[in-house]
Model the fold of this input.
Amino acid sequence: MPTTTLPDLLLTPHTFRVPLDYAQPGGEQISLFARELVTPDRAGDDLPWLLFLQGGPGGLTTRPTGHEDWMTRALREYRVLLMDQRGTGLSTPVTTRTLLRRGDAPAIAAYLKHFRADNIVRDAEAIRMVLTGGARWSILGQSYGGFCAGTYLSFANQGLAEVYMTGGMPPDCSDPDAVYKATYQTVREKNARFYARYPEDAARARDLAEYLAQHDVRLPDGAPLTVRRFQQLGFKFGTRDGLEEVHYILERAMVDGAPSHEFGLTMMGALTVETSPIFAILHEACYTQGRASRWSAERLRAGFAEFDAPAPAPVLFTGEMIYPWMFEDYPQLRPLRGAAQILAETEDWPALYDARALRDNTVPVVAAVYGHDMYVDRGLSLQRAAGIGSLKVWESSAHEHDGLRMDGAHVLGTLIDLMRGAHTAVHPAGAVTSPG
Done:
C-alpha cells in the first residue's frame, strides 16, 4: 500500500512476517501490520520513534483521521508507529471463523496461547530491529497497552528509551481474584453515581429486567436478550460519557411496554466480544502467570449478591468482566466455548512480568493513573507503581479510563513534561497529583 497524505499527516504502511511461536522461529509465520505517522514538515528528519500500544486484549489500534489530539502532541517530536497487535486489524486475523479452521478446542486453545503480551512484545522487538536498525524507541501504552509496556520493561528493556502509560499500570499477576474484587467494588460505585444522576432510570432498568426475565426476547441476530446480557451495558460506565450514553439508551429502550427494535440493535453492538474473540477468551489471561483464572469474574460475583437481577432494588450493571455464560448467549462465541474453558483452566501460563526486573528498572517511565478508573483499579495501580524503578506517576481525578482519547493533548502533554522534568513537585512515592 502506498503512503497516504492527509492534511498535515503522512501515513506509511508496513507489513512484517514473524513467527507464531518464537520458540520455533522456522515454524508457522503470521503477518503484522503497522502504520508510520509523521508530519510532512518533519518527514525527512531523524526523529525518535514512538510505538503506540493499544488497549485490549484484541483491541483495534487507532485509525488516524488527522484529528486525534494525543497524536498531534506526539508528532511534535516523534515519528509514531501504530501497530495492529497480533490477531487484530490488518495483521493475521483472529476471528471465530479463522479459529475454527485450526481444528478442535485443544488446537484452538493452543493457538490462542501465543496471543498474549509476551509475544506482542516479541513482535514489537522484531519490528524495532527492522525500522530503527537496533536503536531504542519510546512506547506509549494505553490500557492493556500499558500492561504490554510492563512486559516490555520486564523482558526486553534493552529496546526502550522511555515509556509512557495511560490508564494501564501492569497488574500483579499473582492473584486475578484481587483484580475483580476491586473492580466489582468500583463498578458498584459507578452504579450509585449513575442512579444519583438519573434516578428515573431505576424504574426503567427494573421494568426492562423484569420483562426480560419473563419473556423470551431475541435480538435481531437471533441471540437471546437476557437480563445478564442487559446488565453488561455497565461496561460503558468506565468512559467519560458512559453514564450519559446508558441513560439515553434506557430512555428509548421500551416502546409500548416491550423492548424496542432500536434497543435490540444497540445491545447487539454494546460489546465487541463477537468481533474480537481475543478479548473474550484471553481477558482473564491478562492477569495470570503460572496459575489458572478459573473464571475469576464469575467466581467473585458470588460475593456481590447485589448484582443479581431483577430485584426490588435498582438493577446493578456489570463492568469489564467476562463470564462463561457469554459463550452461550453470544452466537459467535458459542463455537469457542470449549477452547475458552481449556484456557480458563490452564495453569502453565508463562510469565508476563518480572518483579525484580521492574524493581531494578532504569528506563524512564511516566504513568497516568486515573482516580476513578473502572477498568484498571487505582489502588492496585499505585501498589504496582511502588515496585517499578525510575517511575513517576501523574494521578488525575479529572479523567476516566479514556482520558487519552478524550483529552489526549493534555494527558500526553502532561506526561511528556513530567518525563522531561517540567514538573518538579514530585511526592516521595514518585507521584504528581493533579485535579486535571
